[in-house]
Design brief:
mainly alpha
Length: about 100
């Protein structure tokens, strides 16, 4: 794996986690102000796409979706799977 691909992946993960973090905050604001909401499927989907850390931080900071089991247990499970995937990929390319 080239270093440029690795840097690109890190930039992508940083960006998607920042976006996810703010999406959780925006959805919390919308919930308080009775506005059109971001769907749960979209919130979980962006976490699956790499934003699980941002989702967990957004949940904690804004106390948003903390009572929903699919968020409380699903997001940590997604994060664990993502970490395992990253470790496997790094091992495959660098651990030989």
């Amino acid at each position: 794996m080239s270093q440029y691909l690795l840097y690109g992946l890190l930039i992508y993960l940083a960006a998607i986690n920042i976006v996810t973090f703010f999406l959780y905050g925006i959805d919390k604001w919308k919930a308080r102000h009775d506005k059109w909401r971001i769907t749960e499927a979209r919130l979980i989907g962006i976490a699956v796409a790499g934003g699980s850390i941002g989702a967990l931080l957004g949940m904690r900071l804004w106390h948003h979706k903390t009572q929903h089991a699919k968020f409380r247990y699903g997001l940590p499970a997604i994060l664990i799977l993502q970490i395992a995937t990253v470790v496997a990929v790094v091992y495959y390319f660098y651990g030989r």
